[in-house]
Design a protein that fits this description.
It is built from eleven helices and ten strands. It is an alpha+beta fold and 296 residues long. The two termini are 27 Å apart.
């Protein structure tokens, strides 16, 4: 396992890519304005899936197909094996985290445990909102990396559990259309695609205090009425409830991992009023945001 607690050098990273794919990697360090371009000599055998997230800053991934994905202090970006991209970090220091899964985990996940039959177990490139258990695993793994823990068996267990959680999330996303009430499969998949577009929009734009149901529905090319019903059916939450949870989750990460004060955390995630933020945070987590900062 490769552990990185400092900013990777800008330049030839081929040796790093090779080790990451073979051994896996846990990376947690401070970034500030770094820019990396894809290696021209990258080999297919170096391809490995990963998950990345940040606290206190923004990371911009420009994919080879032209898509641009901004990773902000909420959710996480899963990256498919073999995905080619350029990377740019925002200009203010922040904590950047990445976990690259070793080949032995990826290969084992693609085989049924009992029959040995091949199965579809691929991580896709997309923004996700980790559930509480996935977030806990991610936080503990990079926390041990920052503490200079190099217990290979512990990391093997935790990365295996995390990879399984991410696969479950991917399966839930891909099978979500089956749960819709629309009669035709084509209709169900199109409605799920539009709801997913709304979800991705929230994960990108949540810091905007003016973000409302009309803007989210417009992005999804649905009326607010239809979006609310479909989004609730697919995620279990309404769009505005999902927005609220996204903001609070981002604030929790800023308070805990980036050491932001309460007022700055509230402003960074789209709350204009600190008191309203503190009430919402306490109601959701059962603890005041000031306690997170004090205990961090």
């Amino acid at each position: 396992m490769l552990f990185i607690n400092e900013t990777p050098p800008q330049g030839d990273l081929d040796a790093l890519y090779e080790r990451m794919a073979r051994e896996g990697m846990v990376h947690s360090t401070t970034m500030c304005g770094e820019h990396y371009e894809p290696s021209e000599s990258f080999r297919d055998e170096w391809a490995a899936p990963s998950v990345t997230w940040s606290a206190g800053g923004e990371e911009i991934y420009t994919l080879s197909d032209g898509r641009v994905i901004e990773v902000r202090p909420t959710g996480a970006l899963t990256i498919a094996a073999g995905e080619r991209y350029s990377y740019r970090a925002s200009d203010k220091p922040f904590t950047s985290n990445m976990i690259v899964f070793p080949q032995w985990i990826v290969e084992a996940a693609q085989v049924d445990a009992l029959t040995g039959d091949a199965r579809d177990a691929l991580i896709e490139t997309r923004l996700i909102k980790p559930d509480a258990e996935t977030e806990r695993l991610m936080t503990e793994i990079v926390g041990q990396c920052r503490a200079r823990c190099e217990d290979e068996d512990w990391y093997a267990e935790q990365l295996s559990l995390l990879f399984g959680r991410l696969l479950e999330t991917q399966i839930e996303i891909n099978t979500a259309p089956d749960g819709l009430s629309a009669a035709k499969e084509k209709t169900r998949r199109e409605l799920a695609r539009r709801a997913d577009r709304a979800q991705q929009f929230i994960l990108r734009e949540y810091p905007d205090p003016a973000l409302d149901i009309a803007a989210i529905a417009s992005e999804a090319c649905l009326s607010p009425y239809h979006l609310i019903r479909i989004f609730k059916e697919l995620t279990g939450e309404t769009p505005m409830r999902y927005l609220k949870l996204t903001r609070l989750s981002a604030a929790q990460r800023l308070l805990r991992d980036a050491g932001f004060p309460v007022a700055k955390s509230a402003h960074s995630v789209g709350y204009k009023d600190r008191a309203a933020f503190s009430r919402a945070f306490t109601a959701e987590y059962g603890v005041a945001p000031s306690e997170i900062t004090r205990n961090g």
